[in-house]
Amino acid sequence: MRGTLPERNDAPQSSEAARAARSRARKRRLQRRRRRVRQLGLAAVIAVAALTFCAYGFLNKNTPDPKPEDSSDVSEPNASGGETLGTSPEGTDPAGSGDNAVPAINPDPAPDPEPDPEPVPEPDPEPLTPLEEEVQEILASIITEDMTKLEQLRAVFDFTRTSIAYTGDSDKSDWKDGAYSGLMRRRGDCFTYYAVSRAMLDALGFENLEVTRVGGPTSHYWNLVNYNGGWYHFDATPRSSKMPSFVSFMFTDKEAADYTEQAGRNYYTFDGSLYPERAVDPPEEETAE
Question: Which partner from 39, 92, 218, 247 sits 20 to 30 angstroms from 24, CA to CA?
């Protein structure tokens, strides 16, 4: 919203240099942690493969050969008082070469068991982009495990609103570039606040859309967020003290229209037909999971 809000003083150059140095140090620590994780994962895969190979060799070596069925020569008298088949009386061929010879039993040996397939190592995850690395570090500092979804959304809103200085200008050619520039330089305009919010909401798994003003003397950008089955407006851009007071966090169409009537300039006028149906009631608190 160029020309509508007062430009704020930039932070001293020394503070920007310190933040840049801390950012680079955080990136190096994150890269070292990822390398250690990959090395540990590869060592685990090699160890599992070695144990599998050794176990297979041990089982195959100690498997006993199959034995033929017991065919002991038990003599039973036949009808003529002689010996039954399979007997070996003295003076006869023990191999049973006569007409009544019993063939030797030689069953086929059991086939060797199939070897267990070697585990296939999982591919390494895709490396994070510089924007994703920066977003993950920020979320780790503002999001806790006991937060509800609504509290997470509020943490993103508060961080974006208070950590970026409004300058009234930004490069709007790509939202990811705008988000990264905003986080690195900590300055920008309404497009920067929208882009930074989008990057953080995406990382937390919140579905969100870009909303733009229709009409009015200047353009304006904000987010539409899907929370608990309903879509709400989410605008982290701060306003001049000359504008009417309004908490622009998770607000409804009616609240947007009421504020537009007070502020004028088509402040939150947008084409609702381009977006999913919005929630009517304010968002309700939920218990932490």
Answer: 39
Q: How many Å apart are CA 190 and CA 219, to the nearest integer?
A: 9
Tally of structural domains, the chain:
1
Burial of residue 179, with CB atoms counted within 10 A of its CB: 0-12 exposed, 13-18 middle, 19 or more buried:
buried
Dihedral angle, C-alpha 210, 216, 218, 221, nearest 10 °: -10
pLDDT value for 3: 43
The CATH number linked to 165 is: 3.10.620.30
**Residue 263 belongs to a domain:** yes
Around Cβ 222, how many Cβ atoms within 10 Å? 24
CB atoms within 10 A of CB 9: 7
Domain-embedded: residue 151: yes
> Which backbone phi and psi does 232 adopt, to 5 degrees?
-130, 150
User: Which long-range contacts link 94-100 to residues 24+ away (Cβ below 8 Å)?
Assistant: none
Residue type, 72: S
Look up the pTM and report it: 0.59
**211-256 per-position pLDDT tens digit:** 999 998 889 999 999 999 999 999 999 998 899 999 999 999 999 9
